[in-house]
Amino acid sequence: MNNSRLIKVAALAIMIFAMAWPTTTAAATSDTGRAECLSMKSKILGKQVPYCTVLPPSYDTDKTRVFPILYFFHGLGDNEQSFVRSGGMNLTTDLWERHQLSEFLIVTPAAEASFYINSHDGHSRYEDFLLREFIPFIEHRYRIAGDRLERGVGGISMGGFGALRLAFVHPELFGSVTGQSAALIENPPQFVPDESQRSSRVDLLAAVFGSPPDRAFWDRNNPLKIARTANLGGLKIYFDCGSEDDFGFYTGAATLDKILTARHIAHEFHIYPGRHDWTYFAAHLPAVLEFHAQSFAAAARPAK
Q1: Is pLDDT above 70 for 139?
Q2: Other CB atoms within 10 Å distance of the CB of residue 295
Q3: Inter-residue contact 52 to 36 (CB < 8 Å)
């Protein structure tokens, strides 16, 4: 069964069995849109998974309208409320108020340090959760268009890694993908054997990729490797990175640009001045949102 069919079947199962239901009340409101931060129970992960949804102004006033959707992935150390509370929602609602951005939903699930993949040891099956539970749940709960061309995915840092990987592996599910300062690394990091020198981030990586990292597993999940052979012709791709990125992720971004260019795959790529922080992310978030908006608009236009 292909993933598109799987999502539809899972959505039906949610409707029939009421597998999960929100357990938290709305977090923030605005005359130009509102956000609600809720949670759903995941059988795959065996726990409640928080998420936030930013709803556009027309969502509550036009009950017959269906909307495109952007799944937006947070970075390592952040959570599902980062977009709402770190200025992302304010930027979005301001663009809506100025009529400079078309309306679509933005959904931000909590992912902890999962990198949005199934872990090497199989303990955390986050990708399975996304595909089999979360996306079907969201697209049943909200009025979503449901077409791949009106479904986008994006993210920051670890979330950029997760978004690019998920879209590259499942281009049949997404029409557009963006990554800001994505954690793109060609080779697995060499973990320090001396326990006294290990960092918490190294331990987090080890929990996902193995310790030492399994090279085959790393390559199977590395967007840079996947991009070399994946069928990406129908996917709209955007990514950017700061020229002073604290983790040097501009190197991986430049590598991805070369890979896609060599394969003649259309994409948009930028290196801008800036570091790996919310000042940089916020400065270029409007461009990211507009990229998805243009993709959604192209999908909505009738073919000539």
Answers
A1: yes
A2: 24
A3: yes
For residue 268, which amino acid is it? E
Query: What's the rounded Cα separation, in Å, for the pair 52 and 69?
Result: 13
Superfamily of domain 3-186+222-300: Alpha/Beta hydrolase fold, catalytic domain (3.40.50.1820)
Q: Cβ–Cβ contacts within 10 Å for residue 28, how many?
A: 17
Domain spans, the chain: 3-186+222-300
Q: What is the pLDDT of residues 52-111, one digit of tens each?
A: 999 999 999 999 999 999 999 999 999 999 999 989 999 999 999 999 999 999 999 999
299: CB partners within 8 A, 6+ apart? 68, 147, 149, 150, 175
In the chain, what is the greatest distance between 2 CA atoms, to the nearest angstrom?
64
- Residue corresponding to tokens 């956000």: 35
Number of Cβ within 10 Å of residue 200's Cβ equals: 9
| Average confidence (pLDDT) over 261-266 | 98
Strand partners, 237: 177
Q: Global pTM?
A: 0.88
Strand 33-42 and strand 26-30: the pairing is antiparallel
Nearest residue to 279 via CA among 245, 303, 255: 245
Contacts of 272 (CB under 8 A, 6+ apart): 240, 241, 242, 243, 280, 283, 284
Angle value at C-alpha 297, between 296 and 302, nearest 5 degrees: 115
